[in-house]
Amino acid sequence: MTPKKPKGTRKGYTTGACSAAAARAATLGLLTGKIPEQIESLLPNGQRITFVVHEGSVAKDYAHAVIIKDAGDDPDCTHQAHMTADVRVLADSVNQVRLKGGDGVGTITMRGLGLEVGGPAINPIPRKNIEANIREIANELLQSKSLEVTISVPGGQDMAKKTLNDRLGIIDGISILGTTGIVHPYSTAAFRASVVQGIEVAANQGQQAVVLTTGGRTEKFTIRELSDLDPACFVQMGDFLGPALDSAQQVGIKQIIIGGMVGKLSKIAQGEVITHARRNPVNTQLLADLAASVGADASVCAEIAAGETARFAGERMLELGLAEKFYKALCSRVVKTLETRYPGVFSYRILMCDFEGGKLVDYV
Questions:
Q1: Is the pLDDT of residue 4 over 60?
Q2: Whole-model pTM?
Q3: Looking at the domain that runs over 12-183, which CATH code has it been given?
């Protein structure tokens, strides 16, 4: 018996890879008259992976196939999505593979994503991968006819509510994503990609600032505080500060506004650019040093250093009436840390809120 892989190590496959496999299975069914139970599909990274085909049907000049997406140990809102391909023969043209978006695949409404406005939210690499899989097996048919491929995702509209698509101007469904075809455990690659896309959209709309927030509460807080900014400026970066800043540098964004709470800001202050809790713990000694710098006595600083969380440090400083000074010192350290990593690239503003979304500090 094959030993079970440890939890957290099992790889999965992207929406793009599963769409390509479904398209290949449907095309093979069109050519042979029967949808296969399994299909070996080419991934964008050159690997060949066998997918189980969960549903399929063939009629004259038409075939339908479904692959259920397995995200491995990095499940997101598209885990178990029924990635569906419908392939139809077109007799009025030759050697074309025309790609369409069906139910549950988003529609592009804003420039800046590298995709045609009004077209389906199927990213360039998945597009090429879908076509490559079809051409690999249907080359002979394409010498005299063309194929139309419609990718759909039943329930994709509801899945999209858990993504950043609406902010990116992608409506009515999910995006078909993936650069390698593989989702690595805990990489949250789709989220990382959407962060980068969000910054690119802001830049393409001529924005000079982006507001990077760590989650839903901080996003609502910053939108309330910065109501004069265009909605495209707000990018929920989650844990991906490094990729967000790298992208901002590449596209020429000049001002970085960070909205966060004490825990994530502490991670940034100590030099973390991926701020997930599974990575390095909060450096409570750094927080103790900051507390000392604003007047906390040695016994309190020792408590903070021995503590487990940044929240505890904030609570102790609040009890002493030193919270505002402490939080400003923390924000100052955040800026100093970022300036060291990106010297002369950005100007910074830090907006800090409490756990109920109330304003603590606006540091410029």
A1: no
A2: 0.63
A3: 3.30.2110.10
